[in-house]
Amino acid sequence: MTPGGSGDWQLAVGDPTWLGWFTAAAYVAAACLCVRAARAPGDAELGSRRLAGFWLLLALLLLALGVNKQLDVQTFVIERLRDLARAEGWYAQRRRYQRLFVAVCGGASIAALCVLGVALRPVWRRVRLGLLGLAVLLGFVLLRAAVFQRVGPVWLAHSEPLHAWLELLGIGVLGWAALRAVVRQPEAPG
Fold this sequence. Notes:
Layout: H1 18-39, H2 45-71, H3 73-88, H4 94-119, H5 124-148, H6 154-157, H7 160-183
């Protein structure tokens, strides 16, 4: 992303490094495992529907993040918002809006995790690892949003290895949770 404004984003591979491709492949693999977990047999009908919905939601999120990993769609969105800010005359106050954006994203992430936790309470034991992986991945997304928006401490922008490991950790925990759901033996009644 360059400061020139409109027209800088192009449909192209955004991270052509081996780590970028590995991470994109990890997203797809974890999404496939989530789809398999959604199709795994459940115990009770209500719990089964909730589990399937949870795993399908995670699969969609992972696919979206995997596509974004290589297309950098957030750059396109940021450029359009920058153009809008210039056109509407509030570009000079952009830092306030950038901080607000990251704060709202953080609050929405926490709220979504809480709502999921409550909605999945009947099957909590079967999804807690998936929720942990989702929390790690959302933490990564918020970290990247803060870096893109230049919000937060300076060291944050210079901690790329931390970002990569956090992203891979979140993907790995989600994949592991989905794999456990696929190979999980049905619980005994009682």
